[in-house]
């Protein structure tokens, strides 16, 4: 009984690992606080640049 149980659990573990690889998590990747701040700063710069371009185009 023990030998059979060990064999069965070994195959169950293998199946479980294979199944886990098939179903990836939909959780987004972690972004550090510093990286979030850098991205926010870039967004602000792009918004300012875009607004400046619109002002130049409307005045021309």
Descriptive report:
The protein is mainly alpha-helical and 60 residues long. Helices cover 80% and strands 0% of the residues. The protein is built from 2 helices and no strands. The longest helix is centred in the last third of the chain and has 27 residues. The radius of gyration is 27 Å and the shape is rod-shaped. The relative contact order is 0.06.
The biggest sheet amounts to: none
Instruction: Please give the alpha-carbon distance between the first and last residues.
Output: 87 Å
Count of distinct strands: 0
Determine the mean pLDDT.
Answer: 90
Fraction of residues in helix: over 70%
Molecular shape? rod-shaped
Measured by DSSP, the beta-strand proportion falls in under 5%
Contiguous helical run count: 2
Helix/strand structural class: mainly alpha
Which parts are unreliable, with pLDDT below 50 for 5 consecutive residues or more? none
Run of helices and strands: HH
Mind telling me the C-alpha Rg? 27 Å
Which key phrases capture this entry?
60 residues; rod-shaped; mainly alpha; 80% helix
Can you lay out the helices and strands and say which pair or pack?
Elements: H1 2-22, H2 33-59
How would you briefly describe this protein structure?
The chain has helices at residues 2-22, 33-59. The chain has 60 residues and is mostly helical.
């Amino acid at each position: 009984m023990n030998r059979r149980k060990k064999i069965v659990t070994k195959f169950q573990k293998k199946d479980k690992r294979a199944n886990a690889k098939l179903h990836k998590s939909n959780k987004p990747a972690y972004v550090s606080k510093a990286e979030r701040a850098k991205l926010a700063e870039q967004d602000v710069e792009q918004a300012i640049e875009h607004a400046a371009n619109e002002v130049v185009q409307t005045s021309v």
